[in-house]
Amino acid sequence: MIHYVYEDLWAKLRFLPIGLAVGILAFLFFGALSRQRIRAGKEGLRVTAITVFAASAALILFLTLLSRESGSRQIRIDLELFSSIGINARNDAYAVENVLLFIPFGFSCAWAFLPCRSLWVNLMVGIASSLMIESLQLITGRGYFQVDDVWTNTLGAILGWLLFRIISRIVRALRRKL
C-alpha cells in the first residue's frame, strides 16, 4: 500500500505549481486588503495563514475535480461506510491519500480563521467541504460520491486541526520562556 501512496503523491506533485500560483495570488490580494485595513485603523488579516489555506483549498479542488475530465466516471453513489477500505492495497492507499490531502486544509483553516480553532467548527467545515467535493464529483461525473471519502477527508481535517493545536501550544510555551 505504501508504494501506491508514494507513487500517487509523486505523480500529483506536478499540480503543485497550481497551488503555488493560487497562493501567490491570495498573498498579493489579501496582503493588499490587510494593508488597506491597517491604514483604516482596523486589525490586519492573517495573510500568511489565509495564503496557505487558499493554496491547500485550490490543490484539493484541482486534484479532486479539475484534474479529471467531466463525465470521465460513471455516476455512482456509495453510502456504505468502510465499503472501499480493506478490499485491496490500492483502495487503502486512496483512503490514506484522502487523509493526507486534508491535513493541510484542517491546519490552515484553524490557523487562518479564529472560529475554526474550535474542534466542532473545524469538524463541520471538514464535513461540509468534503460533502461539497463529493457532490460536485457526482454532478460533473469526475468522481464517485463515497461516504468513505467524506469520513477520510474529515479525519484529515481533524488531524490538521490537532497538529495546529499542538504547534500552537509549543509556540506559546516557547514565547513564555523567551
Q: Please, could you describe this protein's structure?
A:
The N and C termini lie far apart (44 Å). This protein has one domain (2-173). With 178 residues, it is an all-alpha fold. The longest helix is centred in the C-terminal third of the chain and has 31 residues, at 147-177. The chain contains six helices and two strands. The model has no long low-confidence stretch (mean pLDDT 92). Helix 1 (2-12) crosses helix 4 (89-112), helix 3 (47-66) packs antiparallel against helix 4 and helix 4 (89-112) crosses helix 6. It is globular and about 55 Å long. Helix content is 74%, strand content 2%. A two-stranded parallel sheet has the order 1-2.
Short description, anyone?
The protein has 178 residues and is an all-alpha fold.
Domain count: the total is 1
Strands ordered across the widest β-sheet = 1-2
Order of helices and strands: HHHEHHEH
Instruction: Name the average pLDDT.
Output: 92
Task: Describe the largest sheet.
Answer: 2 strands, parallel
Assembly state here? single chain
Strand content: under 5%
User: What is the overall silhouette?
Assistant: globular
Count of DSSP H/I helices: 6
**Class by helix and strand content?**
mainly alpha
Percent of residues in helices comes to over 70%
Q: Measure the end-to-end span.
A: 44 Å
Low-confidence stretches: none
Question: Rg to the nearest angstrom?
Answer: 18 Å
How many E strands?
2
